[in-house]
């Protein structure tokens, strides 16, 4: 499947999500905006918005972007959109919840020295090569939301799932010599990690 077809599908998904957001605002009793402190620590621009849909359900949509050049020719460029339906065990925006999320985006990463191998994915390849491609997937998550005050919450969440990616591989982070084209990989592992600072309207 070509890149522009993937982009069109992601755009249609985003438009559908925006439509759902508009519909949900007609019925929502609460709306929250948030930032993921873990992404903030990596200089990744990010924001999320969450709407109440029903007494125990909310819709959370988050996105992030990192387009900066790092020191020592390292690359961690990417963008990601991650919509998630959440079921709250007690009240919305407080306590335990389960999340069911989708994810999609693009990346350009490399020269990230590490020795991590996990469930069939060898991240140590990022030490000596650059990978550029797109991904889609989904997963399930567990989280907890602490109420700090009338409007402020702190939220922690971890998710696990699957992602399919298609990529080109390059010899090094700074060079353009391509060694593989149109390769694919099936990833199984963590798909979400967040410590969110939340403002509830």
Rg over C-alpha atoms, rounded to the nearest angstrom: 18 Å
Beta fraction of the residues? over 45%
Distance between the termini: 42 Å
Series of H and E elements: HEHEEEEEEEEE
Based on helices, strands and strand pairing, what is the structural class?
mainly beta
Number of strands: 10
Distinct helical segment count:
2
Strand order of the largest sheet: 1-2-3-4-5-8-9-10
Low-confidence stretches: 23-28
Shape: elongated
Describe the structure.
- It is a single chain.
- With 201 residues, this protein is mainly beta.
- 13% of the residues lie in helices and 60% in strands.
- It contains two helices and ten strands, in the order H-E-H-E-E-E-E-E-E-E-E-E.
- The protein has helices spanning 3-25, 37-40, and strands at 31-36, 45-54, 57-66, 75-88, 95-110, 117-118, 121-122, 130-147, 152-170, 178-200.
- A hairpin with a 2-residue loop joins strand 6 and strand 7.
- The longest helix has 23 residues, at 3-25.
- The chain starts with a helix and ends with a strand.
Quick structural overview:
The protein has 201 residues and is mainly β. The chain contains two helices and ten strands.
Topology (SSEs and partners):
Blueprint: H1 3-25, E1 31-36, H2 37-40, E2 45-54, E3 57-66, E4 75-88, E5 95-110, E6 117-118, E7 121-122, E8 130-147, E9 152-170, E10 178-200
Antiparallel strand pairs: 1-2, 1-10, 2-3, 3-4, 4-5, 5-8, 6-7, 8-9, 9-10
Protein traits:
mainly beta; elongated; 10 strands; 8-stranded antiparallel barrel; 2 helices; two-stranded antiparallel sheet; 201 residues
């Amino acid at each position: 499947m070509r890149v522009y077809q993937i982009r069109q599908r992601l755009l249609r998904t985003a438009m559908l999500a925006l439509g759902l957001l508009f519909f949900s605002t007609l019925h929502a009793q609460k709306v929250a905006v948030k930032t993921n402190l873990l992404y903030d620590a990596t200089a990744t621009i990010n924001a999320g918005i969450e709407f109440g849909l029903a007494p125990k359900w909310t819709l959370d949509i988050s996105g992030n972007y990192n387009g900066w050049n790092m020191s020592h020719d390292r690359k961690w460029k990417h963008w990601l959109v991650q919509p998630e339906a959440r079921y709250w065990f007690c009240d919305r925006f407080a306590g335990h919840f389960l999340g069911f999320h989708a994810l999609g985006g693009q990346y350009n990463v490399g020269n990230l020295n590490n020795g991590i191998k996990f469930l069939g994915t060898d991240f140590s390849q990022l030490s000596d090569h650059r990978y550029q491609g797109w991904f889609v997937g989904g997963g399930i998550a567990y989280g907890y939301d602490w109420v700090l005050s009338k409007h402020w919450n702190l939220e922690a969440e971890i998710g696990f799932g699957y992602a399919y990616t298609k990529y080109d591989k390059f010899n090094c982070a700074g060079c353009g010599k391509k060694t593989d084209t149109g390769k694919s990989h099936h990833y199984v592992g963590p798909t979400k990690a967040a410590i969110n600072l939340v403002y509830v309207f």
